[in-house]
Design goal:
With 480 residues, the chain is mainly beta. 10% of the residues lie in helices and 25% in strands. The protein is globular, with a radius of gyration of 21 Å.
Length: 480
């Protein structure tokens, strides 16, 4: 197991219970009373936040990715675009060069993508983006998405737009032309332990003139959306952009976001900005780099629409600029055009708006923890992410933009050497005789029948998880 594998952050109480993607925000929904919610299993033992109950493909069929083709039998696209509850496992590693966007739509709901099952150093998707649009109960883990500037289109990286009950965990996203991640109009979602890096800056965004800088990390919405223990590195702006949107039909401010325990490194002139109805902004670590010229972590931007936008800002740190005892130095509020706020408008709250359902650390603890366990680090970190982690830890950069010259902010994937080599490795014959997603050796060791394709979907005694889920979770050190 990779030396940067984590010590699982498992909350005992929770472990047993409890652009193509952009749309308008949904109307706010009430936060459920925990006392009235029936016990249910987490998506996986370390799932946290408001997407933690996504069931994915639990109990459904298993589809194996057996080749690196863009489409056709055995491809990832065929598995994603199938219907009905299903878990996708990988019998091959390497780079999948997509020929078009790969989207999980509403009729593709109840899906688990188990990237941790790949051999070699795992899977990387290139050329186009991969995201969710309107689907529910989706779990995506241990996948890399690095589109690059090859398609002639302005692309995001990953997304959870209009998703409901969905979680992305331990993924890596880089070299996008629009935002690396987007989740407008979503409900009950989590983005956790994901490494977003090197959004391409002056890369030819189709909505802007040549040379316009647009190296943006993420535009996030959700009701409620949880964003925790992520690393955003070498992205010029929108680290994060709060895109709460407006509710329908009354056009009031919408979006409830929980942003905590994230690490942000080497932005330029924009850190976190935008707006949403209610935001918990807690214990985040902002580390300036060589390109950084702006030293507020949060700029709450008021647009003058009906309703309120309010923010709980607590425990955040920017070394050399503010700490936990002077939070007012780390935040500001303006109109969307940078002007003065109306005198009657007060954006700051002294108390959080809702519980986080995240095991929260101090900002300093989160900095150490995130750098030890983030991104697609199983089966192994690729050289790109290894470099990003070293540069974040050391406060350095290796490359500059070929157009802008800005340190650490590439304008093309070519500025940093392009894609790594991803060895093509296939599982051997006899690895999984009954094709239930669990290797024969593991089934035998766990008292299952390697010739019975039905046992993977059965619930393991004393747990809420199927045997297949127990296997998938065990790969990354998660015990039931």
């Amino acid at each position: 197991m990779n030396t940067l594998r984590r010590l699982p952050l498992i909350s005992t109480a929770l472990a047993l219970c409890s652009s193509a993607f952009a749309v308008n925000a949904a109307s706010p929904t009430p936060v459920p009373d925990a006392a009235n919610v029936a016990p249910q299993p987490l998506a996986f033992p370390t799932a946290e936040g408001y997407g933690r109950f996504a069931k994915g493909g639990r109990g459904g069929r298993v589809i194996a990715v057996t080749n690196l083709n863009d489409s056709g039998p055995g491809s990832l696209r065929a598995a994603v675009e199938a219907e009905g509850p299903r878990t996708v496992v990988f019998d091959v590693s390497g780079r999948i060069e997509l020929q078009s966007r790969l989207i999980v739509r509403k009729n593709n709901s109840e899906l688990t993508i188990a990237g941790q099952t790949a051999p070699g150093i795992g899977i990387c998707l290139s050329n186009y983006n991969f995201g969710v649009l309107g689907a529910s109960d989706v779990i995506i883990r241990y996948i890399r998405v690095r589109p690059g500037n090859t398609s002639g289109m302005t692309l995001d990286g990953m997304g959870l737009a209009s998703a409901d009950n969905a979680i992305i965990d331990h993924c890596s996203i880089s070299w996008t032309l629009d935002e690396s991640f987007s989740s407008r109009g979503a409900k009950n979602i989590t983005l956790q332990r994901t490494l977003i890096s090197e959004a391409l800056n002056a890369a030819g965004h189709k909505k802007y003139p040549p040379g316009k800088q647009h190296g943006y990390a993420a535009s996030i919405g959700g009701d409620i959306g949880s964003f925790h223990h992520n690393l955003l590195a070498h992205c010029a702006g929108r680290n994060w952009s709060m895109a709460g949107g407006l509710s329908k039909p009354d056009n009031k401010y919408a979006g409830r976001l929980d942003i905590r325990n994230n690490v942000v490194y080497n932005w330029a002139r924009r850190a976190t900005d935008g707006g949403a109805h209610e935001v918990n902004f807690v214990n985040n670590y902002y580390k300036p780099g060589a390109a950084t010229k702006y030293f507020y972590a949060l700029n709450a931007q008021y647009g003058g629409f009906p309703g309120s936008q309010r923010y709980y800002f607590s425990g955040n740190v920017m070394p050399g600029h503010f700490g936990v005892d002077d939070q007012e130095k780390g935040r500001t509020a303006t109109t969307e055009r940078g002007g003065q706020l109306p005198t009657e408008y007060s954006p700051w709250s002294d108390t959080p708006f809702f519980v986080s359902h995240v095991k929260t650390q101090t900002a300093e603890e989160a900095y150490t923890n995130v750098l030890a366990d983030v991104g697609c680090n199983f089966p192994a970190l690729d050289p790109h992410d290894q470099r990003i982690l070293v540069e974040t830890r050391d406060g350095t950069y290796k490359y500059s933009g070929s157009t802008t010259g800005l340190p650490g902010l590439p304008d093309s994937e070519k500025d940093v050497g392009g894609w790594d080599e991803y060895p093509v490795v296939h599982r051997p014959d006899g690895w999984d005789t009954d094709r239930d997603g669990m290797p024969d050796a593991w089934e035998t060791a766990n008292g299952l029948n390697p010739n019975d394709p039905s046992d993977g979907a059965k619930v393991r005694d004393g747990t809420h998880y199927t045997h297949l889920e127990v296997y998938l979770n065990s790969l990354v050190g998660e015990k039931i």
